[in-house]
Amino acid sequence: MSKCVVVGLSGGVDSSVTALLLKQQGYEVIGLFMKNWEDDDDSEYCSSREDLNDAVSVADTIGIPIEAVNFAREYKDRVFSYFLREYEAGRTPNPDILCNSEIKFKAFLDHAIRLGADAIATGHYAQVREVDGLFQLLKAKDDSKDQSYFLHRLNQQQLSKAMFPLGQMLKSQVRDIAREHNLSNHAKKDSTGICFIGERPFREFLTQYLPTKPGDMVLPDGKVVGQHIGLSFYTIGQRQGLGIGGSRETTGEPWFVAGKDMAKNRLIVVQGHDHPLLLKPQLEALDMHWISGHAPDTSRAYAAKTRYRQQDAACRISLCADGSARFAFDQAQWAVTPGQSVVAYDGDICLGGGIIK
After folding, report:
1. CB neighbours of 189 closer than 8 A, spacing ≥ 6?
2. Is 46 an annotated catalytic residue?
3. Which CATH code fits 4-202?
4. Which overall architecture, per CATH, does domain 279-356 show?
5. Is 2.40.128.120 the CATH number for 211-273?
6. Dihedral angle at the C-alpha atoms of 71, 354, 125, 114, nearest 10 degrees?
7. Given 99, 315, 320, 350, which residue is catalytic?
8. Is 99 among the residues known to form the active site?
9. Which of 195, 315, 320, 350 is catalytic?
10. Which residue stretches of the chain are H helix?
11. What are the 10-residue block averages of pLDDT along the chain, 357 residues in total?
């Protein structure tokens, strides 16, 4: 019997080509469309109906069955509630990372196994390799699309069941394959919004769930230069939407968010991209997760990213007794943001990561 693989069909071109490739390779393929958001499903920003139609069209073209499953409750309980708690505390979480570990590779994986799947597959740009019984998460061949950063919280059991057929491909090749096989979504724009929530004006969206709490925008010395609407609605390194005009006392350089004083409800802002307050030579990370199940050898040098699409930065990692870790970088990192993830690499191997304190 051929191996059964359940593919997370999102309606996008990447997952569609994933399903096509697996079918061509002789696997028994089942498509699974996940619906994970219901609050304003009829709005212009939530495209789940259109996405489902695209997924069904692709499944029909490829010749595979497709099922739709609703994980909205799991998403709200496991991902969105955390997302709101973090913003309320003044931090900037990355919901895509939690969405992968809790929904796509937990709720979805559990459902797929109940369907009789031997493995699941997604359209992520990453690779899995087994070495001496240990599963490694590797970067994708296409550096510009690599998504190992978002997958760094997967564990051995999850990786043992995961397939990423696009890991060795370029995005341009994926679109070419979709076009050659007449997939209706071959030219569909990639989604860049919040995981399952869609692309929307973010501050407006957040105000539906969190109260505004205006306060002062201040310079590092405490001088008031403007007003903010609530610390939850800003992130370190933010430049747009500050609304600070120029004056004779300012340098004319752009303004950036450099910090938050939660106790006094003050937003600290500075001028200039390379202001010292925006550059951090080290950081502490909590809730560390190591993919192999154990921490790396700290006598060696590694690399890390403090945000997606950032170049790997050389660093040293030291471990703390409480399970947290310290990352000391060879060069100071720009706009290190509490709540975001720092992800460690040994060459192309993703080691794991944690939440920036």
Report:
1. none
2. no
3. 3.40.50.620
4. Beta Barrel (2.40)
5. no
6. -30
7. 99
8. yes
9. 195
10. 13-24, 48-62, 72-75, 81-88, 95-99, 108-114, 156-160, 171-180, 202-206
11. 91 97 98 82 62 94 96 92 94 92 95 96 98 97 96 98 98 96 90 57 85 97 97 96 70 92 98 97 98 96 95 97 96 98 98 98
